[in-house]
């Protein structure tokens, strides 16, 4: 990529600002001063501003504890988006892995790795998503059995889920699709109503409960490897 794009994407400044830095000979690549903004560099190039190395990450993997009331979108609008909660110099490259409804909270992955995202969301990968579901009414054993058999909805029949009663009117539910309002529709079919929904796990990755709603952190190398093993 161009040197000016590398520096701008790393959050050093606008393309105009970093071009001025380059022309003023403040930038070195592999220890040599470079004065042309179109000089070619790669993610692993040693680029320095005033002899301080500038790092541009090729792949970024974040976990966000999504709060209620924000939408899973990359486009700004009248409603706050999950991307507005992320403070990262490469924010323009990032996007959510799938989506959570506006009133759903919990674990949402954020990345710039399209292949990683596609693989995790592909139906062929059968990566489970686990939710803590609060309900208007108590859940019966027959309801749990129906969830584990598959619920016939208007547009598809859900794959057999893993459903466990974890409290009064609370169910832990693992599903293997991600259809629009799927969990709400499954319980509506059973004559019940979801009153609160929180994603607690994506595949083998649990939500970091130390994250406050709206906070995010990098995934560890081990966490990324575990997710990649699923696909």
* Euclidean distance between termini CA atoms: 29 Å
Instruction: Return the CATH architecture of the largest domain.
Output: 2-Layer Sandwich
The CATH homologous superfamily of the largest domain is termed: Pseudouridine synthase I, catalytic domain, N-terminal subdomain
| Class per helix and strand makeup | alpha+beta
- Major pleated sheet: 9 strands, mixed
**Percent in helix:** 10-25%
Portion in strands: 25-35%
CATH C-level name of the largest domain = Alpha Beta
| pLDDT averaged over residues | 95
Shape: elongated
Low-pLDDT windows of residues: none
Number of strands: 13
Rg, rounded, reads 22 Å
Overall description:
This protein is an alpha+beta fold and 231 residues long. The chain has helices spanning 3-9, 15-23, 114-121, 141-149, 182-189, 221-229, and strands at residues 27-29, 32-33, 47-49, 52-54, 61-66, 95-96, 104-111, 129-135, 162-167, 170-175, 194-202, 205-206, 216-218. A hairpin with a 2-residue loop joins strand 3 (47-49) and strand 4. The longest helix is centred in the N-terminal third of the chain and has 9 residues, at 15-23. The chain is elongated.
């Amino acid at each position: 990529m161009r040197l000016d794009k590398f520096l701008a994407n790393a959050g050093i400044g606008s393309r105009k600002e970093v071009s001025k830095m380059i022309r003023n000979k403040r930038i070195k690549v592999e220890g040599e001063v470079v004065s042309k903004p179109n000089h070619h560099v790669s993610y692993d190039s040693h680029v320095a501003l005033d002899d301080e190395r500038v790092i541009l990450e090729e792949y970024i993997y974040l976990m966000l504890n999504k709060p209620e009331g924000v939408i899973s979108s990359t486009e700004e609008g009248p409603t706050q988006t999950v991307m507005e909660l992320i403070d990262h110099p490469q924010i323009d490259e990032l996007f959510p892995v799938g989506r959570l409804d506006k009133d759903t909270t919990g674990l949402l992955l954020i990345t710039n790795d399209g292949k990683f995202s596609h693989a995790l969301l592909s139906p062929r990968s059968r990566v489970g998503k686990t939710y803590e579901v609060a309900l208007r009414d108590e859940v019966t054993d027959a309801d749990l059995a129906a969830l584990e058999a598959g619920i016939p909805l208007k547009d598809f029949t859900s794959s057999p889920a893993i459903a466990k009663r974890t409290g009064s009117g609370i169910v832990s539910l693992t599903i293997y699709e991600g259809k629009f309002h799927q969990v709400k529709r499954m319980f509506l079919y059973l004559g019940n109503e979801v009153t609160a929904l929180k994603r607690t796990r994506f595949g083998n990755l649990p939500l970091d409960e130390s994250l406050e709603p709206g906070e995010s952190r990098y995934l560890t190398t081990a966490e990324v490897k575990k997710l990649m093993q699923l696909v």
